[in-house]
Amino acid sequence: MNLLRNSCIGLFLVSAMVALLQLWFSLWSADIFIKILITLAIFFVVALVLLFIKKESLETRKLKDDQEF
Predict the structure, then answer these.
(1) pLDDT means over runs of 10, the chain (69 residues)
(2) Longest CA–CA separation in the chain, Å
């Protein structure tokens, strides 16, 4: 779970860095920049969804274990 959380944080920071680099230095054309940001956003959303699924699975398992007593 820590890996997924760190991945989300890392993807967010990379996206912010890419946006700042584009703002200050115009490293990419507009269409390439948009493609890079969309790709990073998709990776971020996938990692976030996996994080939520893992968290809910752990909480559900814990609740089921607690109710057996």
Answers:
(1) 94 98 97 97 97 94 81
(2) 62
